[in-house]
Write a structure and sequence with these properties.
The chain is α+β, with helices and mostly antiparallel strands. It has one domain. It has 1 helix and 9 strands.
């Protein structure tokens, strides 16, 4: 009887661990910059980044990470698209009166949600 109880507890825990891992990955994605771009007041160099966001509504706080270190932050909104994006994509827009580009939107592969960043 004691063995069956321990086995049931172990089975329950083994099911909960993968669910927590999925929940963690839900509010993050990746992006690759092929040219320098601005997010908030930070200029990012070309490279690979992890994007994480927190918030309970469409308004979210976005953190840009590189090598597990936060390198930039911004405010944004979650935008639901009609179809999942076929690949990760970064939409850039020119900064007014400048030759620099800013990140306007980040699309994530196979996901209908995208991040639209507020211009600073």
């Amino acid at each position: 009887m004691k063995f069956a109880r321990h086995l049931a507890l172990l089975a329950t825990l083994s099911l909960l661990v993968p669910l927590s891992a999925l929940a963690k990955d839900r509010n993050q994605g990746s992006m690759q910059l092929t040219q320098a771009a601005q997010i908030g007041s930070t200029q990012l160099s070309p490279g690979d980044y992890t994007v994480k966001w927190t918030g309970s509504g469409p308004a979210v706080h976005v953190s840009i990470m590189q090598h597990n270190k936060a390198v930039a932050a911004a405010s944004g909104t979650i935008v639901d698209q009609k179809r999942p994006a076929p690949y990760d994509d970064v939409v850039l827009k020119p900064v007014a009166n400048s030759k620099q580009m800013r990140i306007e939107e980040i699309d994530f592969a196979n996901r209908k949600e995208a991040l639209r960043l507020k211009a600073s």
